[in-house]
Every structure is written in structure tokens, then in C-alpha cells.
Design a protein that fits this description.
By secondary structure, the protein is mainly α. It is about 65% helix and about 0% strand. The chain has 6 helices and no strands. Helix 4 (about 65-80) runs antiparallel to helix 5 (about 95-105).
């Protein structure tokens, strides 16, 4: 990583920290989810689960308390401020995996077949380098 790239990462980290202090989970997730998924989808063993959580969180039929929990878990994934930096090879996403999988396991009854089907289709598009339109 070049000096310039490190400076960009530090700037991005500082911006993320400022956003985290008073962040709105829905806004953070709406703005950061697709770019992060596009960048890392091929490397994430939990990509499909994260996508299903996204579709459930933004489904109008999902109860507010479920949305709140899913958005908090997805915001943790999106924000670069976390316990284990995402760029550490092999272990960078283990904390994100734990947060998302635990949250989904608690709320699995709310994630429908439609959410899972949309997640599969979105993952296929991401792996082709496209950001899904929804």
C-alpha cells in the first residue's frame, strides 16, 4: 500500500468515526452497503446472508424492531471502525461475520424466501461487477 493509499484510508477512517459518533444506521447502510459489497462480495463467506439482511431491513413489511437490529448489524459491517480491521488478511471480517450471523440467527423468522432469492440474484450481479439496482 502506497503512502497516498494509507492517507486515503486514514481520511476514510476519520470520516467513518465522525459518522459513527452520531450516525443514523439507515443512512450509513444506504450509502455504504453496495460499494462495500461490490468491493468484497467475492471474499465474504457471509455475503448472501448480509444481502438477505439488507432486503429484510428495507422491506416495508418488516417490523421496526427487526429493522433496527438488522440496520445496526449492517452499519457495523459498513463502517470501517470495528474491532478487527477489514483489511487484515484472513481475519479482517471475522467480527463482521459474528455480528451479522448472530443477528440473523436471532431474526431468521423475519428473513423470507423472497429476501433470500433477491440476495442470491444480487450476489450474482455483484460477482459480475454490477451494483444491483435496488
Amino acid at each position: 500500500m502506497s503512502r497516498h493509499e494509507r492517507e486515503i484510508d486514514i481520511d476514510r477512517h476519520n470520516q467513518a468515526w465522525r459518522a459513527f459518533v452520531g450516525h443514523d444506521d439507515a443512512k450509513v447502510v444506504r450509502e455504504g452497503f453496495w460499494p462495500k459489497m461490490l468491493r468484497f462480495a467475492a471474499q465474504l463467506p457471509f455475503a448472501e446472508q448480509a444481502l438477505a439482511a439488507w432486503y429484510c431491513a428495507f422491506d416495508p413489511a418488516t417490523p421496526a424492531r427487526v429493522k433496527t437490529m438488522l440496520l445496526a448489524a449492517l452499519a457495523y459491517f459498513v463502517l470501517p471502525v470495528d474491532l478487527i480491521p477489514d483489511l487484515l488478511p484472513g481475519i479482517g471480517f471475522t467480527d463482521d461475520l459474528t455480528v451479522i450471523v448472530t443477528t440473523i440467527s436471532l431474526l431468521r423468522n423475519h428473513i423470507t424466501a423472497e429476501h433470500r432469492n433477491r440476495a442470491k440474484a444480487a450476489l450474482a450481479r455483484l460477482r459480475r461487477g454490477e451494483i444491483p439496482g435496488d
